[in-house]
Predict the 3D structure of the following.
Amino acid sequence: MVAELGHFALILALAVALVQGTLPLVGASRGDLRLMSLGRTAALTQAFLVLLSFGALTQAYVTSDFSVLNVVANSHSAKPLLYKISGVWGNHEGSMLLWALILALFGAAVAIFGNNLPDTLRSRVLAIQALIGVGFLAFLLFTSNPFERVFPAPPDGNGLNPLLQDPGLAFHPPLLYLGYVGFSVTYAFAVAALLEGRVDAAWARWVRPWALAAWCFLTLGIALGSWWAYYILGWGGFWFWDPVENASLMPWLAGTALLHSAIVVEKRDALKSWTVLLALLAFSLSLLGTFLVRSGVLTSVHAFAQDPARGMFILAFLLLVTGGGLALYAWRAPQLQGGGLFQPVSREGALILNNLLLCTLAATVLLGTLYPLFLDLLTGNKVSVGPPFFNATFVPLCAPLFAALCVGPFLGWKRAELGPALMRLRIALVVSLAAIVVAMTMIDSRSTLAALAFGFGVWLIVGSLASLSDRVRSGTLRTIPRSTLGMVISHASLGVVVLGSVATSSWNTELMQTMKPGDRVDFAGYSVLLERMDEVRGPNYIAERATLNVSVGGKPYTVLQPERRLFTVQRRQIAETAIQTNLLRDFYATLGEGDPRQGWVIRLYLNPLAPWIWLGAALCALGGFVSLSDRRLRIGAPSRKPVLQAAE
Amino acid sequence: MRRLLFILPLLTLALMAGFFAWSLTSGRDPASIGSVMVGRPAPKLDLPALRPGEAPLTDADLRTGKPVIVNFFASWCTPCLAEHPLFTRLAEREGATIIGIAWKNKRDDALAWLKKLGDPFKLAGLDLDARTGLDWGLSGVPETYLIDGNGIVRRHYRGPITERDLTETILPFLKGTVK
C-alpha cells in the first residue's frame, strides 16, 4: 500500500514537473505573471511529492517489506537500522530517487529563497530545473522503478553490498549528490541567462551562493569517499585515481573555477561567457561522472549494477542536457559583451590564471579517465592510466596554482604591482623555504619533490593567513567580512591537505609480516605483538579479529584490532582496518588472509599527517560555509538595478 | 573564427558522445584484459589424466582437426560452479569436445565435484602444481580457451563463460562460422 502511494506520488511529481518545465517558460517570454508564478507553486509541490515517494521507499526498507523487489535485492532483515536506511540509496534505483529528491529540493530552495530574483529569471531557472527533473523522474518510472513488487514475497532479502555497510559510506552518496545536483542550479541559471541574453554583476551575485553551496557539499562528499577508501580498502592509500574518484573530481575542479570566475563577473563585469560556460560544465561533468559510473563503459572498484541499456538512457539524457546547454551557448554567448579592462598583473589576471590551471587540471583528469576507453575502441589495445600519469601532470600544474594562490588576494583590481604583494608575503616565503630545508635535511633527503611539495603546503597556510596580518595589526579582525574569512580558511586548509597527502605518500613506513599468535615484530620504533586471534560474530557477519599489542620501550602503547569480516549472506570478505591516530600520524593495521598453521598476513603502516588530509578537506568546506553565511552572499541579495548602479 | 570558439565545447561533446555510444553498442567488456595467447599455437599440454585409468593428456589431443574447448576449473572455485551447466549443455546438445583441467586441486576433490555436478569432459587432466596453468597464462580459475583444429588458440575467456558467450562466440566457433 505504502509502496503504491510512493509510486503514485512519483507519477504525480513527473506530471507537476512537466507543468513546471513548460508554462513558466511561456509566461516568461510573454510577460504573463500568472503563468510565471506557477513555477514556485509547482516547485514546492514537486518537492513535496518526491519527498513523499522517498519516504515510502525508506519505510519499505525500515520495515523490511520484502514484497518490494528493490528491498529484496538490497536489504536483509538482520541488517542494522542505519544500513537499512542507507540501503535506500545503496543501489541503482534508490540512488536515482535520491538524485531526483535532491533536485526537487534545490528547486524548492530556489522558489523559497529566490524572492529578490526578477520574475522572468526566477521562472526560467525553475523551469530549467524542472526539465532536468522530468528526465530523472521519467528515467526512474520507465527504466528503474524502485517500487516494483515481487510475488510471492521471499522470506528474506539478499543484503546490501558489504563494502557499503559502513558509517562513512552511508553518508557519502547523499553529500556527493548534494554537490552534483547543486550544480544543476548553476546550470539552470546559466541557461536562463543565455535565454535572456543578459549576464551582469547581479546575475553573478545570485548564482554564486548556489555554486558555493554545491561546492561545499561536493568537497565533503569527496573527502568522505576518500576517507572510506583509506580505512576500508586497507591499501593504506587515500586516493587511487580510480575512474569513480576522477568522476567526482572533475566537477569539483570546474566548480572551483566557477566560484573564482563568478567573482570577476560580479566585481568587474568581465569573463561573462567564460563563467556561463563553467556553470554549464560543472553540471555537465557531474552528469558525465554519473554516466561513467553507471553505464559500465569503464571499470572501477565501485559496485554499481552496470547495465548498457541504462547507460544509453543516461547518455541520451547527458546529450540532451549538456548538448542543449552548449548549443544555446554557441548560439547566444557570442552576443555577451565583456566589460572591464585590466592588466595581466591584477586580481582579474590572477583569477584567470587560477581558471586556466583548474580547467587544465579538469581536462587532464578527463583525458586520463577516458583515454583507455578511446584507445581500446580505436586500436583494441588495453591500457590503464594510473598514478604515474596523474602525478606527472598534476604536480607541474599545481605548483603555479599554489604559488599564485597566496599572491592573488594581495593584488588590486584592474592593475597591480607584483613587488609590494610579494613584500607582504616575505614571512610566508621565508617560512616555506625553511620548511623545504627542514624536510630535506631532517625528514628525507632522497625526495626533493616531496620536500618542495611540503614547502608549498606551508606556503599555502602561512601565505593565506598573511592576508589577515593587516587586520590583526589594525585590530579590525572582528569586522572582517565573512566571505574574506571563508576564503582565508579554504585557502589555508588546502595547504593542510597538501601537507597531509605529501607526508602520507612520501614519508610513510610500512611492513608486511606473516605472524602467528605470540609472534612479535619491531616496526618503526614500536614493538608489535600478535596477542591472539578471535572469531567474532557481528549482526550479519562473522569475523576473524587479530589483537595487536603495541608497545614503546617496553611500555604498553595501544591495542589494535583489525578484522576480516565475512558477510554470510553475500559470501564476501571485507577487511576492517584498525587505526590509532594522534592527529599527527596514523598507526594503521590490516589483517590479511591466513590460517593457524601458517600464520596470518599482517600489514602495518605508519602514516605521518594522514588525518590532516580529511581535516583539511573538512576545513575547506567549512570555509565555504562561512563565506556562504556572509550577508552579502545571501541568496536573496539585492535586486538588479541598485547593483548595476553600485558597480558603476 | 570567434564564433568557432563558442561551438568548440559542443563539438567536443559530440565527439565524446560518439565514443560513448560506440562503446555501449560494441558489446566490449572493459573488464577483459585481453590475452596474448589468441592467434598463437596452444601452449604445451602434458598432464596426467584426472580420471583413474585414462591415458595422459598430450599436445596431440589439441590437434585433431576438430575444434576443442579447454576449461581450467577447480572444485574450490565458486564461479566454476556457475559456468558448469553451460559446459554440460555444450557436451550433451552440441557434442562439443571439452577438455577439463583441474587446477591446484586434489584429485579426489575434483572427482567428487564432477561426480556431484556431472562430468561434461571428454578428456580431463590434473594440474596440481599449476605448472601447465603457468604455461597457458592463467590468472585464476575458471578460464576457457577455444582452440581450432590446427591447435591455434582462437579465444580466451577469463572468468566464467556466460549464456551470451555461448550464443555469440562459442556456438558459432564450433559450427565453424567464426575463425
In short: The interface with chain A takes residues 2-3, 6-7, 9-10, 13-14, 16-17, 19-26, 28, 30-34, 78 of chain B (CB under 8 Å). Residues 54 and 170 of chain B are 27 Å apart (CA to CA). The mean pLDDT of chain B is 85.
